[in-house]
Every structure is written in structure tokens, then in C-alpha cells.
Amino acid sequence: MKSLRFFFPLVSLILVPLGDAWAQGDDTARLVHAWGRFGEGSWKRVRVTNESLDSLGNIVTTVTETTTTLTELGEDGYTLRVEVIVDVAGQQVTTKPKLITRGFNGELEGQTVSVRKIGTRDFRVDDRTIPCELQQIVIDRGDSKLTTSVHVAKNTMPYVLKRTTVTTDPAGMTTRLESNAEVVEVERPYRLFGRSVPTATIKTVQNTPHGNTVTEEVFSDEIPGGVVSHVSTQTDPEGVVIRRSTLELLDYHAVPGSPPRRRLFGRRRGR
């Protein structure tokens, strides 16, 4: 435990599910999205426990409870209200709620996204071969570019079975982050609040110049936002563990979804 040194927030893990990767203009993008398949008013509350070391080498445990609510759903994206309570050494701090609007591919307002179907590919998991559509998604963030390839299986949860993302500078010359998320188990029964729900297990590996993060999460399409639990470990470039965290679902409320009648983004999308 003495190797733990820093605390890093996990908002990105909560807000960007594996399903953020679908062609625009296809209502399937909304229906299979971890938030898009639910109705406005759906919410979930999770607890994230982080372990780190302070400047004196003492172990500090930080507990964060986050309530995320789907406040608006459009044809092209969704808005979440995120409320966070942080408990450090017995002292609770409540942060100001934030509203975050994203498209179904993970883009923010003003960012250009293009989606291209590039063929078909089989995906192997649990001794099964699942036919997938292979897509490439490019998001121009202005100061960076995200290029993602995804394996899409519309009838197998969590629907995007593999996602590989490379974040570069705008010119695409310098790599800043590489991420690979892959389903390693499907149709796994999971005991949740006294009943069994079908889940999938997803393993994500992120590589940056500052180190690596490995996360294993349990995903269910019956839960708003999808993620039921996760375990995450971050290491520095020398392989020393600098953070460990766990996430658990505390409660949720699912509102049945209905087709939205408006768009959230008033911009032209890339092709």
C-alpha cells in the first residue's frame, strides 16, 4: 500500500460508457446507448473509494458519492446533471452540480464528429464468435483529435464489444493517449439488490506518457449509465501503483425511454 501516491477523479469513467460510438442518423445510436435508452429523470448513485498517499506518505482514503441524472434527451445527444459529495478524513465537501451535454459518440457541443462504416469483423468472447460491424469515429476537439475504431453488435450487450481510441494532437502526429476497451465476458448473471441481472464484463487499458490505467467493470443495460461496479488500478511509467479505486452502485431509478423530438446540438456534423 505504500506505493500509492496520488488521487485522480473518475468522472470520465462514469460519464463515457463503452456505448458512445454509433453512426449518426440511426436511432439505434440512442436505443443502445447507456443513457439514451432511458427516459428523462432516470438516475443512478454510485460510491467510488480511492486510496492514495499524502505528501508525508500517509495513506488517505477518499470516498466520493456521485448522483447522475438524465435531465434532457435529444435525437443527437443527452444532458446529465452530476452531483458529487467527497468525504476526506471524515470531512464532507459537496461540489456545485454540473450539467454535461454529450453526443452519442461522446463529443461535446462545438466538436465535429464523423462516422464511417469500414466493413465487418468477427469478435471472439466466451468461446463465441459474434459478427460485428466495424466503424471508425473521428472527433475533432480543436486542441486534439480522437480516432476510434469500434466493433458493433446490435443484439449483444453492451453492443460495442471492442473500442480502440487514439488521442493525438490536431495534426495527428503526436500520440497523447491510447485506450483499448474490450468485452471479456457476456451474459454473466450478477446479483443486484436481491435479484439476478444479465451483465457483461469490460476490461479497459489506458496508456499515456505518465503511466497506465487498467479497469474492469461490470455493465448492465438495465441500469442507467450501464456501469454496476468497477475496479481500477493506475501505475506510473515504472510500473509502481499510484492509485487504486473501486466503484459500487448504491441505487438507481430507470424511466422508460421514448423517442425524443428535438436536437441538442445546433450544428452540422461531419461525414
How does the SSE layout of this entry go?
Elements: H1 11-15, H2 28-31, E1 43-53, E2 59-73, E3 77-88, E4 91-94, E5 98-103, E6 112-125, E7 128-140, E8 145-152, E9 160-168, E10 175-192, E11 195-208, E12 211-219, E13 227-235, E14 241-253
Antiparallel strand pairs: 1-2, 1-14, 2-3, 3-4, 3-5, 6-7, 7-8, 8-9, 9-10, 10-11, 11-12, 12-13, 13-14
Name a few traits of the molecule.
57% strand; 14-stranded antiparallel β-sheet; 271 residues; 2 helices; mainly beta
Percent of residues in beta strands? over 45%
How does the major sheet shape up?
14 strands, antiparallel
Strand and helix order = HHEEEEEEEEEEEEEE
Helix amount: under 10%
N/C terminus separation: 49 Å
Q: Poorly predicted ranges (pLDDT <50, ≥5 residues)?
A: 1-16, 21-25, 267-271
Question: Radius of gyration from the CA trace?
Answer: 19 Å
Global morphology: globular
Number of strands: 14
Counting H and I runs of at least 4 residues, what is the number of helices? 2
**Category by helix and strand content:** mainly beta
Arithmetic mean of pLDDT: 85
- Total domain count: 1
